[in-house]
Design a protein that fits this description.
Layout lengths: L3 E10 L4 E10 L2 E6 L7 E4 L4 E4 L1 E6 L12 H10 L2 E6 L10 H14 L3 E6 L13 H7 L3 E3 L8 H14 L2 E4 L11 E2 L2 H6 L3 E2 L1 H15 L5 E4 L5 H12 L4 E5 L2 H4 L21 H12 L5 E2 L8 H4 L16 H10 L6 H15 L15 E11 L18 E11 L2 E5 L4
Parallel strand pairs: 1-4, 1-5, 6-7, 7-8, 8-9, 9-10, 10-13, 11-12, 13-14, 14-15
Antiparallel strand pairs: 1-2, 2-3, 5-16, 16-17, 17-18
Length: about 425
């Protein structure tokens, strides 16, 4: 493999709390050295004015393959990932059929290798068919390379099934990712509050999320499984996690860009690009999520990238599917929500988007230490640009941030020492 030298950038490595102006030398797909006067290489990238960071990692994406390849595939999703600066993505199991057995896990890994862009790791289903009734083949999926287990799209409603799942996850030392939504309180189209009442829209209360979190934390109190809460969205949920961490429970949580930047007020437009699950909440919930990021209650940032066809999103608000895409614009949106207002700094941002996600799913990534995989993202923090979905590499266009003016962009994405995306040679 050709060697690579990244020159004149500012290295940010949260795994070592390292911030310095330095060059990075890559040989044989691994970090060879960081410093000055590192010699020559087969290829050189000038990173003047840029941050050189561990490759960004998104532990919550939907690539739709198999079953809905017209919306996204592992190939198109990987292209979207590297265009957004992500070197690694963990894809959810709500495909058709569900990723609930070792053959499906192996398919994702083979297809990711064939495509040769981002590292794509499958998340296996907790239950067969994601039906919430019978545990899937957790052990064999784990052995074949499933990075975690989840029934994302639905929560595991049966407490007995959930208790067994926590025990199995503990046995195999894998992380259980839960979509927290009590089904008897679900079925709505937006957040239950003043806006939904005015619009006469069926709605999902904050308690739907909070009840399942509280139940799972209670179930897991003596089991100690690595329990991860997906796309947290309410103030009450953040406080439940905060209290659980104070008690020493093994719990982590993620938040998505839209739950840091948008509220249910946007639903007054009836634009289905503002329809997602969990739904957009109130300004108080947004503030609580930001506070949760600031104080460490929320452990990482994840997009919940969810592609849909235009004709699906053109349905009436009540009947359109939940979900938006996010991989290609997540970085500047997090900058806008968290860095620009001064809630966190750049080192903390990269920690939340790389080092800590790697720890949650136990990947030996999220670092620029010597001999580590050369998964690297080069970011221009001052690049000003307009989000344009028509320029996205992924298949779908369902993004509520189209037309937003943002600052900060991944200008190069390097996976195992190979430059997969370079904005200068798009």
């Amino acid at each position: 493999m050709p060697s690579l030298l990244i020159q004149n950038g500012t290295v940010l490595d949260p795994s070592r709390n390292l911030e310095q102006r330095a060059d990075v030398l890559v040989r044989d797909g691994r970090i060879a050295a960081i410093g000055q006067n590192l010699g020559d290489a087969d290829r050189t990238i000038d990173a003047t004015g840029c941050y050189v960071t561990p490759g960004l990692i998104d532990i919550h994406v939907h690539f739709r393959e198999p079953g809905d390849e017209e919306e996204e595939t592992i190939a198109s999703g990987s292209a979207a990932a590297v265009a957004g600066g992500f070197t690694t993505a963990c894809c959810m199991p709500n495909t058709k059929p569900a990723l609930d057995n070792e053959a499906q896990v192996e398919f994702v890994l083979r297809e990711s290798e064939r495509v040769g862009l981002a590292n794509v790791y499958p998340v296996g289903a907790i239950t067969k068919g994601r039906a919430g009734k019978e545990l899937a083949e957790i052990g064999s999926m784990h052995e074949r390379g499933a990075i975690a287990i989840s029934d994302d799209g639905v929560g595991v409603a049966d407490a007995s099934v959930m208790r067994k799942a926590l025990q199995y996850a503990r046995m195999f030392d894998t992380v259980l990712m839960q979509h927290c939504e009590e089904p008897t309180l679900s079925g709505g189209a937006m957040h239950a509050g003043t806006v939904s009442t005015i619009l006469g829209m069926p709605a999902i209360p904050a308690e739907a999320e909070q009840l399942m979190i509280a139940r799972d934390l209670l179930l897991n109190r003596t089991i100690g499984c690595r329990y991860h809460i997906q796309h947290i969205s309410t103030a009450g949920s953040v406080e439940l996690v905060r209290q659980a961490k104070r008690l020493g429970q093994n719990v982590t949580a993620e938040v998505s860009p839209h739950h840091l930047l948008l509220t249910d007020e946007t639903c007054r437009t009836f634009d289905t690009h503002f329809k997602m699950n969990p739904p957009l909440r109130t300004a108080a919930d947004v503030k609580a999520c930001i506070d949760g990021v600031r104080d460490g209650t929320i452990d990482c940032l994840a997009t919940d990238h969810a592609p849909h066809l235009p004709e699906e999103k053109e349905l009436e608000f009540q009947y359109a599917p939940f979900g938006i895409i996010g991989l290609e614009c997540a970085l500047p949106l997090y900058i806008k929500a968290l860095v620009e207002p001064g809630h966190i700094n750049w080192m903390q941002l990269i920690d939340l988007m790389s080092t800590r996600p790697a720890k949650i799913v136990q990947l030996d990534k999220g670092t620029l230490r010597e001999r580590a995989d050369a998964d690297i993202t080069i970011i221009d923090p001052k690049a000003r640009w307009t989000i344009d979905v028509e320029q996205f590499a992924g298949k779908s266009r369902n993004c509520p941030f189209h037309g937003w003016q943002v600052t900060g962009r991944a200008v190069a994405t390097i996976v195992s020492g190979d430059v997969k995306w370079n904005l200068a040679h798009k």
